[in-house]
Amino acid sequence: MYTVRVDQPDCRFGNMLLEQFGGANGELAAAMQYSVQGINCDDPERKDLLMDIGTEELSHLEVIGVLTRMHLKPMKNKRNEAEADPLIAVIGGGGVNLYNSAGSAWTADYLKVTGELDVDLRGNIAAEARAKITYERLMDFTEDQGTLDALQFLMTREITHMKAFTLALESMGKPAFSIGRRPPTPGIVDQYFNDSTGVGQRGETDALGPWNQGGGWELVESPAFANLQSPVTGEREHGRPTNHRKHAAAAAKGKN
Amino acid sequence: MYTVRVDQPDCRFGNMLLEQFGGANGELAAAMQYSVQGINCDDPERKDLLMDIGTEELSHLEVIGVLTRMHLKPMKNKRNEAEADPLIAVIGGGGVNLYNSAGSAWTADYLKVTGELDVDLRGNIAAEARAKITYERLMDFTEDQGTLDALQFLMTREITHMKAFTLALESMGKPAFSIGRRPPTPGIVDQYFNDSTGVGQRGETDALGPWNQGGGWELVESPAFANLQSPVTGEREHGRPTNHRKHAAAAAKGKN
Amino acid sequence: MYTVRVDQPDCRFGNMLLEQFGGANGELAAAMQYSVQGINCDDPERKDLLMDIGTEELSHLEVIGVLTRMHLKPMKNKRNEAEADPLIAVIGGGGVNLYNSAGSAWTADYLKVTGELDVDLRGNIAAEARAKITYERLMDFTEDQGTLDALQFLMTREITHMKAFTLALESMGKPAFSIGRRPPTPGIVDQYFNDSTGVGQRGETDALGPWNQGGGWELVESPAFANLQSPVTGEREHGRPTNHRKHAAAAAKGKN
Amino acid sequence: MYTVRVDQPDCRFGNMLLEQFGGANGELAAAMQYSVQGINCDDPERKDLLMDIGTEELSHLEVIGVLTRMHLKPMKNKRNEAEADPLIAVIGGGGVNLYNSAGSAWTADYLKVTGELDVDLRGNIAAEARAKITYERLMDFTEDQGTLDALQFLMTREITHMKAFTLALESMGKPAFSIGRRPPTPGIVDQYFNDSTGVGQRGETDALGPWNQGGGWELVESPAFANLQSPVTGEREHGRPTNHRKHAAAAAKGKN
Amino acid sequence: MYTVRVDQPDCRFGNMLLEQFGGANGELAAAMQYSVQGINCDDPERKDLLMDIGTEELSHLEVIGVLTRMHLKPMKNKRNEAEADPLIAVIGGGGVNLYNSAGSAWTADYLKVTGELDVDLRGNIAAEARAKITYERLMDFTEDQGTLDALQFLMTREITHMKAFTLALESMGKPAFSIGRRPPTPGIVDQYFNDSTGVGQRGETDALGPWNQGGGWELVESPAFANLQSPVTGEREHGRPTNHRKHAAAAAKGKN
Amino acid sequence: MYTVRVDQPDCRFGNMLLEQFGGANGELAAAMQYSVQGINCDDPERKDLLMDIGTEELSHLEVIGVLTRMHLKPMKNKRNEAEADPLIAVIGGGGVNLYNSAGSAWTADYLKVTGELDVDLRGNIAAEARAKITYERLMDFTEDQGTLDALQFLMTREITHMKAFTLALESMGKPAFSIGRRPPTPGIVDQYFNDSTGVGQRGETDALGPWNQGGGWELVESPAFANLQSPVTGEREHGRPTNHRKHAAAAAKGKN
């Protein structure tokens, strides 16, 4: 798409770049997630969108692959460079493969494909946000101008895609919290379980925000939890809620 | 939290339930994703939220585990039942383990944790949507009332969490497409690359929607793509865009 | 070692047998665990033991492989048989490979190798117990006499090995709970944390046994936990313990 | 590329087809193996070949994906169909994902990429042979004409690629057993170690063939092995060879 | 539980600490192994034990997570620190995730869960021994006092758990080598197969110990192995045993 | 087999050596690939070959394991050495395990086993070529003479095996491109799809070679592809071919 240029190869940075080639938030993950969703999609218009962006990500895979290859090439015969990524040096002779920076092989477990269009679009929005922040961090670790140019371009396109997926989701006209066909149980759906008593060992108070107060929320304190009406038995429960994590978190809160 | 009841154990359904115990969209994945994000979180209020919901998901893990165990128990000594999930029967003696329905071991590759709060919240919204649709599908495959009650409760809570994460994200007050610190390149960010010419072999027309027209979008047709200004070279490119996927998709479009 | 005989091939049972060929408790896992431990071992006598048993397990791998192959062979061309294990049928043409019954590839993550001899021996004792119970369960799922004979032999040898590893551990003369060089902190090491209050919603009482009463145990009730002397701060803690799991477990206890 | 047609959807066969979508010998594996090799390749002509075939395999991925999707679609709401592949039914709503027939996620561990062109070409020839036999076996398990037509086309192309890779390798003009720069040690390279004495418990005789007799081979019987000149010590070794496998194999040879 | 304190963050040590967060012998592995066993357990008393310790390990997961986070935090923006763990730096922004020190994602393949209580307890004893030695080694690699305090506490608790599991096993009153219901074959169970002749090339003699002499053992020399009565055929076998490993081990014994 | 000698232990090189112990092209992969193929093999002569070489590779596993152990041993207590491979240092106490240089656990996904003899032999030839180049690269990264001697021996044997497998394949007398029973479709099998138009943005011309011209090849230019006769519909297709990769590759071609 444009000429990739590397002014100063840097093996250790090349190792980092593998994240966007064969890593969890990388271009293959993006290309496959959207393309596979596209194959499953029955909505012809959004299928076109999924295929368009899937195709673009596939071309990005090649761009990042070429860029990474340039940084890793010196590994082939130099012991010192090889230590930056022995897997690439010994197995690949300095060539890229679909690993991440830790040498873990790419896996389809990275993908989120549900066959439910609006759910998939939400997953894609999140995926693009992850890809954007990953590119940004990579840019923080290099000063090579040719590399920065390429990463800036790729990073920009992730925002483009994030926007497109968001608009495609909105245009479906579904209410924000309506997923699938089965409605949630009224009442229970509006209860926020405060799974901590707010009297942790360091005296921290529970946080309040729009996610648990106002707007129809019923803030269910732990003790009240005992009276939660079970949808199963039709009886009030009398136990206490699970409340360990808050305490452990408080306890483990470091002072560094 | 409430009494799990199974009226009629069903090994093959128990195998399906493993998806929510040790599967990609299941309760361990949810519990770990939110708790680990919570450990990394520097915002004390939303950290509290992440810990609250992480804790609740952990209790759900136990509910779904007990429910699944009840369905799988008959596997232990009956060859016919054992065929529903040989891994559970032979290795587990009819007991659950952190596998999905295909016997794949749970892996942290399922998690999306970036250490960037708003990005993580977007990932959590998508994760809750996936969990919701997974519970709905499981409900489509059973008629056992006790099981349906438990699944309805768990499904409802996913919507609750989805709502909480959405409100927590909104309350951060960040613009919708602003991720991290580095801005995208103006101009390029508003270009929608129509990676297909719209004259596929079956005559389908390209789809138009709010994701590529109006609102500041510049729809870049493939030919125009040749004139894209490269952020790298500062020169206009003269090539043609990558356009394979659309064609292949069109070609492969089945008639079934 | 002896002639493997199969009277009636049974593809679905062959699929189950894969657990002992390429599964977590199977013969390759045993052979590799002991052999790798042997390579690392500096004690020449127990190294000999590890190599002897590692070698025997390797011959068992071949026995179980041949036995499994006999059961799976009919898969090659018969659609109905192939459904018993499509991976074996399509990829292997009815031949075995190092998969378990769920088609998961064997992984060295199954191995427990620490390079600390007494720790490794404990791991081996446990591994042999697992292999034994796995063989027993397989025997519960077949009536083929030739197969039963082979499995009985292999199962017997696991007990032999369990015994040998136990005696090798005992002959090292180390106290039962002394691992490595660093001693545990006195006092704390004898505290049993009763991470539940014993007043669960269904009224179950906490269990008492030699693992938390008598013999030097200090049973630390949850409230008392607040006064645990921290080895870090030298101060008494004032929080409450983590106590969620017990409640959740109680709550989720089914009635089926 | 051509219209995929399915006359009679068949979920269990769709499950098998996943081998060529997300399996070890499937189209993604082929597309990625050749494309990644192409990125690493410094020979412009064979790089073009790798990219051409990598591109074609990518279009095949879409063909097989669409075909598989058609077979799996009925899974969505029917319990009986869902049992054919619960992972696809529950997680994918009947949509494909990059799994194999056993539900294992696609992994880059399937790829063989060395960055040494002639070595990679040998790997590709073998990969095409595997893909061919996989398609043939799938054809043995279906009678659906539309499906057979598609599989016949895809199978044919694997032979085309096998031929192209073979000719590309031959045109490099390298001797058959010359790999890399370092020559093997003369003498030792021509020794065939007969790691069994030929007097197994069932009296089988060792096999002789062009792989161990004639043509410069020195057949080193196990006893002679003791006199092998070590390249390390410069001394003759006096031990006996490793000879276990042959015996075990013989012993385990079944009578079924 | 107590305040975690880090005096001097150390990214490379933080990378090592990940072993106890998301590694094979780490706290998630322990928490999940015991909790899942607890869900499967039909013995109410030992189920309580499994749940108590599972809960405690879960709180340890949080302690180790917070500790590790403190050590890794400087990675976020510093290239030099980021090289200590590029995966954490680029994907996590310096935040922890469920990886081990090599960046491999946590997998349930680490767990040993059989659904047979005494077998599971043996596995837990071994698991605690492994966790103890892992903590000890970590302590060997840091001099940070706050970190050492936390690790000493966590290490101590592993010994506590090892003791509890041992006593729980003993209190079941089962004979040491009785697993499951099916007895081993008498005679064969007491034979120790000396899978090497004791005349290796370096003249080492076979080791003797309580694991192969005295106490009912029949030491079966390799030649005698030929006369082993097969449980399958009822005939004496006439082959020689597999004896390769011992020789290879002897041969490969280094002089360093 | 011969005495392994290490003059100067080198932890970082020991880490690299793990590739041949527990890596994708290593000795366990070779040993298992050939042995498992041997178990499945119905041709008694080539089964003997597979078992002979499988056995030899198993002895090589031990040689490389001992060699690697010698290099890694200093890791146990030295922080600086431990940083060369924290997984080995912390989990293994300086002992080897079946990991590759990136700490990924060995997986049977590395194996290529099809149960079709000539296909397997092709895979083995390629596997030996990979093992050879891997040994060569390792030799490029060390100057330790004892280590070099061992690697030279092991490398030499890979060529021996490559030759043996090649001759075994040739002696089967099958035509070069005949795999299985189903013949490819005439005509289509001889078409080389030039999936790029040869007028890339940088003006590169398409490569021609024996793999797409002469010898019966029909070079199908992209436009002509539109007229490819579909084996499915019997109709001429009118679309354009997939041609993206070539362009993307050209575009991404770096200048470094």
Key phrases:
homohexamer, 256 residues, mainly alpha
Overview of this structure, please?
6 copies of one chain form a homohexamer. With 256 residues, chain A is mainly alpha-helical. Chain A has helices at 11-22, 27-40, 44-72, 79-82, 86-92, 117-140, 145-170, 222-225, 244-252; strands spanning 191-193, 218-220. The first copy, chain A, has a two-stranded parallel sheet with strand order 1-2. In chain A, helix 1 (11-22) runs antiparallel to helix 3. Chain A is elongated. The two termini of chain A are 47 Å apart. At the A-B interface, helix 2, helix 3, helix 6, helix 7 and strand 1 of A face helix 2, helix 3, helix 6, helix 7 and strand 1 of B.
Topology of this structure?
The structure is a homohexamer of 256-residue chains.
Chain A: H1 11-22, H2 27-40, H3 44-72, H4 79-82, H5 86-92, H6 117-140, H7 145-170, E1 191-193, E2 218-220, H8 222-225, H9 244-252
Parallel strand pairs in A: 1-2
Helix pairs in contact in A: 1-3, 1-6, 2-3, 2-6, 3-7, 6-7
- Weakly predicted, low-confidence segments of chain A: 197-204, 223-253
Please give the share of residues in helix of chain A.
40-55%
Taking all Cα atoms into account, the compactness measure Rg of chain A is 24 Å
Strand count of chain A:
2
| Helix and strand element order of chain A | HHHHHHHEEHH
The outline of chain A comes out as elongated
User: What is the subunit organization of this protein?
Assistant: homohexamer
* Neighbour order of strands in the largest sheet of chain A: 1-2
The proportion of residues in beta strands of chain A is: under 5%
Largest contact between chains: A-B, 101 and 101 residues
Mean pLDDT of chain A: 86
Broad structural category of chain A: mainly alpha
Described by strand count, sense and barrel closure, the largest sheet of chain A is: 2 strands, parallel
Tell me the distance between the termini of chain A: 47 Å
Discrete helix count of chain A: 9
